[in-house]
Amino acid sequence: MDQLFSLVQSALIVAFLFAVVYAMVLDFNTARIPNWLTVPVALGFLPTALLAGLTPREIFAEHYGTGVLVLLGGALLFA
Predict the structure, then answer these.
(1) What percent of the chain is modeled with pLDDT above 90?
(2) Among the residues of 1-79, which ranges form H helices?
(3) Of 35, 34, 42, 36, nearest to 16 (Cα)?
(4) How far apart are CA 40 and CA 37, in angstroms?
């Protein structure tokens, strides 16, 4: 059972990293990240962070909170 958990944990981390690197390459080459890619990255962070040992407070208050603040800051710059 422990090996199965380790395998699932590794697979989730690799899938999340692949999505982030793919978004980075697209952004570098085209200066655009498609919307269909941002949702899996944002949602994929949650199980990956939980498996990595982050607490729910760290995940939501610090990581997602920082993302929301950066999004709002960017929206204010273009308003």
Answers:
(1) 52
(2) 2-30, 35-52, 56-57, 65-78
(3) 42
(4) 6
- Report the alpha-carbon distance of residue 32 to residue 5 in Å, rounded: 35
Which of 25, 24, 26, 59 shows the shortest CA–CA distance to 44? 59
Q: What is the CA radius of gyration of the chain?
A: 15
User: Which residue type is seen at 11?
Assistant: A
Q: Say if pTM beats, i.e. exceeds, 0.85.
A: no
Contact 17, 51 (CB under 8 A): no
**At which residue do the structure tokens 């952004």 appear?**
27
